[in-house]
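Z., the sequence and structure:
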Amino acid sequence: MAAGGGGGKKDREKKSRGPHAGAKLPVPPPRLRAFYQETVRPKLKEQFGFKNPHEIPALEKIVVNVGLGEAIKQPKLLEGIVEELSIITGQHPVKKKAKKSIANFGLRQGQEIGAAVTLRGARMWEFFDRFVSVAIPRIRDFRGLSTRSFDGRGNYSIGLKEQMIFPEINYDDVEMIHGMDITLVTSASRDDHALALLKEMGMPFKTTEDKRR
């Protein structure tokens, strides 16, 4: 990088983006949703002996959340988070506000301190597909996801250290590295049912957990 180029994003003019080449083409159905319907559901039904089709677990929604403590003193950083989440998920996020004031941190009730996106339907399936097949393999020193991050009600949460694992993010446009939490909400009432569902859909869990703890 050339000297004196520390101005970063503020010194660059934003290029207007026109519609992409396939903007007028019909949107293809999410491939992972078809895989779930045709392959995963029959396997889960056989594995657990479900009699009622409604008992078969399914992915209901995905929540992507970013909390930004730095937004207390630098509110403009939150705008960058909102833009990045929009690029990553394809949906405009909602800004999160503080529920109460904390004087020690200079936090006021109602102050914007984060952003979140709730994905359902086609966007949910497409995000999950990209997350599993493209983003997770880009995690540094990745050795598999823990099976201990279920909440007891069939939902699974993942904490990421940086947004750079998503190839949609251009490193040159990033103002700060930040983490995020991704929660996969399923219709399963038991963690073992949810684990089987996510495994069948490609989630790379560890085969054995570290038992030293």
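Confidence is low (pLDDT under 50) at residues 1-6, 8-16. The longest strand covers residues 59-67.

Let me know what you think.
H.
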